[in-house]
Amino acid sequence: MADQNLHEFIDSVSTQDRLRVENDLGGGFVRLRVSEAERRQAQQDIRSVEDAVIEMLRNARDAGARTVFVASAKSGAERTVVMVDDACGVPLNMWDTIFEPRVTSKLDSMLFDDWGVHGRGMALYSIKQNATLAQVESSVEGGGSAFRVVFDTSKLTERADQSTCPELQRSETGEWVLGASPHNINRSVAEFALANRKECTVYMGSMVEIVATLYAFGRQALRTYSIMPDDSADDVAPSKRLAMARNADELVDLAATLGISISSRSAYRVINRNVDPCDPFLTTLPRAVATPVTKKGRAKDVLKDFRGLKIAAEDIQDFSDDLKKPFARLAARYYLEPDVEPKIRVDSDGVHVTFPVRKM
Q1: Rounded CA gap, 175 and 179, in Å?
Q2: Partners of 29 in beta bridges
Q3: Is the dihedral of CA 255, 256, 260, 261 positive or negative?
Q4: How much is the pLDDT for 299?
Q5: 3-class secondary-structure state, position 311
């Protein structure tokens, strides 16, 4: 008994890897010991589909994703979520193992964020336990992964209202925050995208919309990274793979390798550019137009220069919103952060617009 207590004491205070790790699984993955996994206990367990989506997004971010694509569909009580990222990827021999308890690649990078502790090797295991299906559909080491998860919402519930999106608002300090809305999947993705906008860009849509987005994303990447005709689809990063499609039938087959099922008709529409790619999710959210207040507390509804040029605040905001979409397209071509707020200045010689440039 004394030996056991001594061992537990050493295990609880030691920072040596040998006392934190039960098994070294290779490829940077380890299975944590029970005591270490418990030490990393998250503040919340998965109690809804929305919780599971957040955990999947956190996994992508922690694996180094700069771009994440979230496709969601509902059929009866069945909710399917497919998530494609451009992170570091999962080795083939780990595709099943990562869903086992206490398996993590974050031995020395346990993170604390808005949702608690991340890195205890329990998130994917918890998702698997709550899902009808949870699996890696495709992964390329150094090129990202595609995960598909299916939930029975009669068992793991989700919000009844899944169509409403939150509104972006300016706080008193000038920061963007989300207004009141149902805590549905849209809000979960919006919360993550807003909190992590400097680390990664999130796209969200239906299965067909995300296929169109991945197709466009891959074709843009082809300008820098060529895909040879004899390249195997399994060797091409999931986020760029759909660009290999030369016709609708090939697009259907390539989408299936990511866990996305679409009809030939939908694939034909994507190939013929009849389905618009998604914009970064944050840029699609409605935005409240805040009215600035003067020191005397009166509403100040105009920006004006010294000659008396007056532009209403709401017109400045509308002008700003109209400019964001073309800049997002330009940013995508040159791997710039698309979700930036243009700075608009009115003076005696004109209206000046500046977009901050941050590389992705």
Answers
A1: 12
A2: 26
A3: positive
A4: 42
A5: strand
Kindly tell me the sign of the dihedral angle through the C-alpha atoms of 219, 342, 340, 208. negative
Contact between residue 204 and residue 191 where contact means Cβ atoms under 8 Å apart? no
- State the pLDDT at residue 1: 52
Maximum Cα–Cα distance across the chain: 86
For residue 330, CA distances in Å to 218, 230, 338, 342 come to: 15, 31, 8, 14
Percent of the chain with pLDDT over 90: 49
Q: Shortest CA distance to 115 belongs to which of 186, 176, 55?
A: 55
> pLDDT tens digit string along 137-176?
999 999 999 999 999 999 999 999 999 999 999 888 888 9
Listed in order, strand segments (DSSP E) in the chain are 21-26, 29-32, 67-75, 78-85, 103-104, 111-113, 116-118, 133-140, 144-152, 168-170, 176-178, 201-205, 302-304, 310-312, 343-347, 350-354
Token pair of 218, please? 């891959």
Question: What pLDDT shows up at residue 164?
Answer: 95
pTM, 2 dp? 0.70
For residue 8, the SS3 value is helix
Coil vs helix vs strand at 158:
coil
Supply the DSSP string of 249-306, one letter for each residue: HHHHHHHHHTT----HHHHHHHHTT-SPPPPPHHHHS-B-----B-TTS-B--EEE-T
What is d(CA 260, CA 253) in angstroms, rounded to the nearest whole number? 9
Alpha-carbon gap, residue 65 to 57, rounded angstroms: 9
Cα 244 versus chain centre, distance:
23
- Bridge partners, residue 352, by sequence: 345
> Tens digit of pLDDT for each residue in 188-226?
999 999 999 999 999 999 999 999 999 999 988 776 555
